[in-house]
Specification:
Blueprint lengths: L2 E5 L3 H13 L3 E5 L2 H7 L5 E7 L8 H11 L4 E6 L4 H9 L4 E4 L4 H12 L1
Parallel strand pairs: 1-2, 1-3, 3-4, 4-5
């Protein structure tokens, strides 16, 4: 079992992901803001981060992506967005983040991500 940090300002998304992650045998931890998410990333037990790119308190997306990548160094980071773009995908890749999901996403994608992170 692994710990997954979910950072998203939409409670529906946070709750949905937390339920899926719990059903798949892992421990979800949630944060509704970028600042709370960065604080929770200090926990060394957190092995996977799933974070929305656009949060009300986050810096511009390019900076937020870099902050996540640096703070979560050595852990898998998955970015999610309802408005993905090629530019943001390139920024994520340049920061070492290779998984980018568009909202809405399916259970199969989450299952695959968990398998990659914890196997």
């Amino acid at each position: 079992m692994g710990t997954v940090l979910i950072i998203d300002d939409e409670s529906v998304i946070r709750d949905y992901l937390a339920t899926l992650i719990r059903r798949l045998g892992h421990e979800p931890v949630t944060a509704a803001t970028a600042m709370a998410g960065l604080e929770k990333l200090a926990d060394p037990d957190c092995q996977l981060v799933i974070a929305d790119i656009f949060l009300p308190d986050s810096p511009p997306p390019e900076i937020w992506i870099q902050q996540l990548a640096q703070t979560a160094a050595g852990r898998m980071v998955v970015l999610i967005s309802g408005a993905p773009s090629q530019e943001l995908n390139e920024c994520a890749t340049a920061s070492g983040i290779t998984t980018f999901l568009s909202k809405p996403f399916e259970l199969t994608f989450i299952r695959r991500i968990l398998q990659t992170a914890f196997n």
